[in-house]
Amino acid sequence: MKRIGIITSGGDCGGLNAVIKGAARMAASMDIEVVVIPNGYAGLYNLTEMESLVALTPERLVSIDVTRAGSEAGHSRVKIKKIENPDKYDRIKKGLEKFGIDGLVISGGDDTGSVILDLAGQGIKCVHVPKTMDMDLQSYSVGGDSAINRVAEFMSDLRTTGMSHNRVLVLEVFGRYAGHTAFRGGIGADADCILLPEIPVDFEVVYGHMKRTYISRVKASDVRAGTYAIVAAEGMKDAKGEVIADESAGKDAFGHIKLAGAGKYVRKRLEAFMKDDPDIEAFMKDTGAYVPGVYVKPEIREVTPGHLVRSGRSFAYDVNFGMEAGAAGVALLKEGLTGVTVVRAAGSEIFYQATAEVIKQRHVDLSEVALFERLGICFGRKPEEYKPELKAWEGKIERHM
Ligand code: F6P
Predict the structure, then answer these.
(1) Which domain covers residue 257, as residue numbers?
(2) Whether 134 is catalytic
(3) Rounded to whole angstroms, what are the CA distances from 377 to 161, 181, 190, 232, 301?
(4) Domain with 96 in it: what CATH number?
(5) pLDDT tens column, 188-198
């Protein structure tokens, strides 16, 4: 193996530049050159048309900042199978031959992984480095922790304006049909309520929790200030189990509907409950906030950071994981493995698994939700019973970081 191509694909996120740097440095230590295949699978398909590729020499690596999110290699959402050209795989192979590329390290999520299986089936050597801010793969995926930190920061920062205006705030966050980033980001900000795709929302429960928490908070404050923080996953479902999505947002290149509108929906549902609740006017009067015809009930506002949750910074966990997993991807490729995913790299131990297994969607474990319900956080359902089961740990303690 003399030359490897690196591809990043799907939605960008934190930690990808660390994957690139880890792969390039490991390859250099093995006398293998790494080149960037730009713009994900679009670039792979168009290699035949390109004049040159950027080699990740030590000099070029200097300008790749692992602390920044996004990817120096660029992204696209292109599913090779969907390309109509019947010679598409030959075209890709010719492109790889043209640049003397013997194998690929490809970082992406489930859609990217499905293309890896496709390419590996065509005899193209590729190893997968798991990446997605949605965290819905079976293994940890680079970008997850950075997104969680961003969600937590945004929710926590919003409290200053929430407290100043006594507003209820709803933060709608990316994560597609899995609630991992909303869940852990919400916990990271000590949110009052977290709405996940895994739990169809009963708004009566949410309203009851909001009213109790918010009113008691404002009443307990010497300056009559309070807020209530809700994190809503973009893929959350209504009580019937239907995803709340504004269909006018359209579909992406993989055919997935673009999710939008969860925050607005939550606001409207809570406003409707508040409008019909006589206790609200009494509360406003009791706390000296009531101004007839002008200010008669607390306001609810939704905030949608959108792509900001996966932009900006790469947090340290993702830089660590990204470096290790990128390096491990090269080591696996060098040994001739293909169609596999790096699931963990710790020192000299590199664990991998068939990509087909790793890309099976993973959802939030509801037993973990029940623990936080016991701690008073609302998840849009009547709290489930939480029964601690005590077990002595057997075997090796996993490394935490
Ligand atoms: O899958 C990652 C993700 O960030 C989702 O959480 C989000 O729904 C989607 O990508 C947005 O995709 P795009 O950047 O293509 O609009």
Answers:
(1) 147-310
(2) yes
(3) 21, 16, 9, 13, 20
(4) 3.40.50.450
(5) 999 999 999 99
